[in-house]
C-alpha cells in the first residue's frame, strides 16, 4: 500500500468531519420533521367564516387579509397601557372578533392602510365573546339576552400567533443547513487541495506548508522505514497521527530520546502498561507519544536510532527483578505462617 502525507491528511479529515456531518444532518432532519408539526405550520385562510372548521381540524395558525375592520372600543391592558385591541367584521349578520396587537391597531386607526394581512391564531374564547356582546347590548340600551350568539366563540388572535417560535425554528434550520454546507465545501476543498487542511498547519514550523506536504509525500513513498497503526518513521521524520491532529518531528532535530513505562488504569479495568516515547532538544523541541504495544515503540526507536535504548532495557530488567523479589517475600511469609500453625494443630 502506498503511503503519503496527503492521504493521511485526507483520512484524518474524514474521521473528524464524518461525525459532525452525521450529527448536523440528524439535527436538520429532526428540525424538518418538527417544522411539519401543526404548531409550526401556517395556513392561508381565504374565508373568515371558516374559523370553526380550521380550529376543529387543528389548523389554528393562519394568515389572512382583512378589510373594513371596525374597532369595538375594547382594549387589552397591561400595566395600565393598551397592548392589544378588539376589532370586528360583520360576517353573515354576526360580529366576528379579531384581536390585533397595538402596533397593528395603530396602523388601522391612523388610516395608513384599510386592507391588512395578519398572521393570527384561531382561539376559542366564549367568555370574551359574551363580554363583547354584553358591552354592545349596554351601548344600545337593550337586554343582553337579545344579543346572545352575536359574537362567535372562535376569535382571530394576532397576539397568540407563535411568530417567535416559528422564526427561531426557521433560523435554526437555516444556520444548521449553512454550517453543514460550509463543512461539505471545506471537506471537498481540503480533499482536493491538502494545503487547505487545518491539520496541515503543523508544518508551518518547517516553512511553506504546500512544499512540505509534497516533501513528506516523497519521504513516505520512497524513504519509508516503518509504518504501523498511527505511527510512521521515514528517513528524516517521525509522524504520529491522531484523530484531532498530526505530529511531525524532524529526526535530525532530536538530541535526547527516552522512553519509560508507567501503569495506567483504563476505566474500571486492571492497570495496564503504557509506553511513553519522549523526544527533545536544548531549544524548543519537546514531544511525547504513548504506545500500548511494547513491540511498536521498540520498532519506532530502532528505526529512528538504529539501536534500542539500553537504559530502557535496564529499567525492564529492574522491574522484573523487583516483581520476583516481592513474590519470593510473599512465599516466605506464607511458609512462616504455616510453620507457626503446625504446633497448635498437634
Q: Number of helical runs? A: 8
**Structural class computed from helices and strand pairing:** alpha+beta
Number of strands: 14
Rounded to an integer, what's the Rg over CA atoms?
Answer: 39 Å
Mean pLDDT across residues? 86
Strand % is 25-35%
Outline the biggest β-sheet: 7 strands, mixed
Specify the overall morphology.
elongated
Oligomer: single chain
N-to-C span: 74 Å
Helix content: 40-55%
Name the helix and strand elements from N-terminus to C-terminus, one letter apiece.
Answer: HEHEEEEHEHEHHEEEEEEEHH
Low-confidence stretches: none
Strand order in the largest sheet: 1-2-6-7-5-4-3
Properties at a glance:
346 residues, alpha+beta, 14 strands, four-stranded antiparallel β-sheet
Outline the secondary-structure elements.
Blueprint: H1 5-34, E1 43-44, H2 51-56, E2 61-67, E3 70-78, E4 81-91, E5 94-101, H3 102-109, E6 115-124, H4 126-140, E7 154-157, H5 163-192, H6 209-222, E8 224-228, E9 231-234, E10 237-241, E11 246-250, E12 256-265, E13 271-280, E14 286-291, H7 294-305, H8 310-345
Parallel strand pairs: 1-2, 5-7
Antiparallel strand pairs: 2-6, 3-4, 4-5, 6-7, 8-9, 9-10, 10-11, 12-13, 13-14
Helix pairs in contact: 1-5
